[in-house]
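=== Structure Prediction Worksheet ===
Name of assembly: unnamed complex
Input type: mixed (protein and possibly other molecules)
Chain count: two
Listed entries:
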Amino acid sequence: MQRDHGCHRIDHSLSRRGFLATGATAGVACLATPAISRELEVKQKRVLQVYLQGGVSQLESWDPKPGTRYGGPFRAIPTSVPGMHISELLPHTAQRMHLLSIVRGINLKTNSHHDGRLFMEMGRRSGKFPYLGSVAAKYLMPTNAPLPGYLHVTTRGLTDYTNAFLDARYGQLKLAGPQAPPNLIRPKSVSAQAATRSRELLKRLNSRFSGRGGQKSFTDSYNASFEMAEKLMARRELFEGPAADKDLDRYGRHPFGRNCLLARTLLENGGTVVKVTHHGYDTHAENFNFHLEQLGEFDKSFCMLLDDLRDSGMLESTLVMVYSEFGRTPKINVRYGRDHWGTAWSIALGGQGITPGAIVGATNKEGTEVSEREVDGGHLFHTYLQALGIDSSAYHTLDGRSVPIGDPAKQAVQELLA
Amino acid sequence: MSDLPSPPPLPRDLPLAINAKKTHVVRTFTVDDVPLTTCRVDPTGNWIVAAAENFHIYRWPLDGPQSARTILHGHNSWVRSFDFSHDGQWLYSGGYDDRIGIWPLSDPQPTPARMLVAHDGWVRWVRTSPDGRLLASCGNDNLLKLWDTSTWELVHVFKGHQRYPYAVIFHPDGKRLASFDLMGVIKEWDIASGKVTRQWEAKFMWGFDKKFRADMGGARDMRFSPDGKHLAVAGLTEVTNAFAGTHKPMVLVMDWETGEFKQKLKIDSRGMAWGIRFHPDGFLVGSGAPSGFLWFWKLDEEKPFHTFKLTGGGRALDLTPDGRQAAVAQTDRKLQVVQFTAQSA
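=== Predicted Assembly ===
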C-alpha cells in the first residue's frame, strides 16, 4: 500500500484527542460535550456518501483483474497514484485517486441486498442500530444547523429506519432529486404569525401528551419532521431555479449528474451528511453493457463533485464514501451477468481523516477470495467514525442505558486513518 | 479402355438430403475454462474460428480434431465479431479493446498483420463488403466506419446513431448498409452519399427497465437473405427485468424492399436470440441462450417447425459454405458442429 505520511492536520488530532479525553473522563458518557461541539463547529465535518445501489462490480471498478478467467472484457488503467490501477470504466476517477483510497479486502459473509446494506450502514451484522449517516448527524450536526442532518438524494424509495434508537431528527430525509420537495411554500391563506402560533400549540400539545404517559418517541418523531420541514422551507431557494448550464455541462444532465449537483449545494449550505444513491448495479444479466453505462454516468459526475469539494477547501473536512451493499461474483453467468457477492469486494474512501492514495487489502489472482487484510462492515464503521473524529468505541447514552457506537468486537482499519 | 460413361451414383454415394429435423452433432471442439462469445466458418470451409470470455481467438480445421487447435494472440479484451476476406486468406476480428485485428488465417501460427485502433470504445461488429474491398465496423463511439481492406485507410465515417450501434452489415447490392442500435433503431445508409435513406424503430426489440432506469436492446446478429429481399435480426423482446435478463428471444424478419416488419418470431422462453442465418434451402436457423436451442423457421410461419436442444446456451452460429453444417458457439465452452441431415449409416 501507499500512504501519505506528510498529512499531519492538527484539527484531526485535536478532535480525536478531545473525544478520547472525554471518554476517559466520563467512562461511557456521551461524546458530544459542549467543548467538542464547539470545536466541531469551528470547522464542521461532513459526510458525502455515494451509494452504488445493487452492488457495483469490484472487477469493473476498484479491483480489476484483466486477462484472468473472471476478469471480464475491461482493461485496467493507471491512476494518479503510481502503481495503482483501476478499471478503464473510471478514467476521470483514475486521475483523482491521489484523493481517494481503496479497500479491497471486504468480506461481509452475506450475498443478500438487505443484510449487506444493513451491515455496511450500521456496522453490525444484525440488530437495530443507527446508520452511519444518523450517527454522524448526531455527533457532527451543529446545534444551529440550517439543514436537516442527514439528507438522502435518491430516485427510488427504499425503506430505511436509519436513526434506530437515536432521536428522530437524525433520521434520513429523502429528496427525490433537485426539484423542491412538495409543499415547501406556506399556503397564502396561512399567515406567518398563524403558522408560528400553530407550531407553538403543537409543541404544547406534544409536551402534554408526553407528560401524561404518551409515547415520547411519537412526539419526538413528529417534532423532528416539523423541524426538518421548517428548515427546508427556510432554504427553499436551494431547490429553486434551473441549474447553471456550465454546471450541467460538467456534471451531466442525467438524474445522477443533477443529484450530485444538488449534493454539492446541500454540503455548501450546511448539510452534515449527504447521501446520493446511484441505482442500477444489480447486473445479473449484461453486467458489462450496464456497467459501461452506469459507471460512465458515475465517473464524470462524481469527479466533478470531488473537484468542487477540493477547490472550495471542503474536501479535507468531508468524509467521502463510495460504496455498495456488496460486490459482484467473479464468475460470469450465462447471461453475461455477475451475481451477488459479499465475499471479496471493494469500496473507495477519501477526504476527512482518510489517508489518500492507499490500497488496503487485496484479493487473490482471480478475485475469488480476500488474500490480505480482510475487513467487514464492522471494521469499516469504526473507520468512518474515527476518520470523522468520533470515538467509535464509546457509547450512545439513551435514557439511562448505553449502547456501543461501533461493534465492540471490531476495530477501525488504522492503515486508512490519516 | 472402355469408352462407356460412368454409371450413375448409387443412392448410398449421394450426399444426404438437407433435413433440419434430422439435425445432429457431428463434432465438438472445446476451450479450456471460459464460455465462448462468437464463432464463424471461413468462406472456403477450411477453418472454424471462435472467441471466448478471454482475450483469445481459437482456430480449428473444420474437419480436424480438437488437438489441431491454434490460439491467436493479439487482442487485449474479448472478441465480439469476425469476418473474412472472400478468399478466406484473411480473418478480421472486432474486439472490446477498440481494435480490429487483421490475421493471415492460414498461417501455421497466425499473428496479427495489423491491430487497427478503429473506434473510441468497443468494436461491436465487423462485416466485409460483397466485393471484399471494404470492411464496415461499428462501435461504442456511436459511429459506423468503412475501411479499405487493401490499405486499411478509413474511407468514411457514418454519424447518426444516438446510442450504441450493435451491428452493421452490407446489403448484397454493395451500395447500402444496414445498422441496428441499442434502442431498436434500424438505419439504411447509402454508401456513396453517406446519408441515411430509410429508418425504422423496432421498439419491440428494446425495453426500458423503469426500476433500474436502463435501456436493454440491440441486435445480437444480423443477416440479409442472399437475394437481398429480407433482413433478419436476432435479439430480444418483452423486457420486464433487464438486470435479471427477463426477456424473450426474438428474430425480426423485414421485407427490405417495402420496409415492412414481415415476421416477429418470438420464442416463449426466457433468453436472447444470439444468432440467425438464412439457409440456402429457404428456411431460417437461429440460436439462443441461456437455454440452448437451435430454432428452425419457415419464412412464412411464426412458430419454429423444429427445435434442436444444445448442451449449452447458443451464443452465435454460422453455416458452412455448403449449408450442410453449422457451428454454434456455446456457453458451456463448447464449439459444436451440427449437421442438418440424417446421420450417416
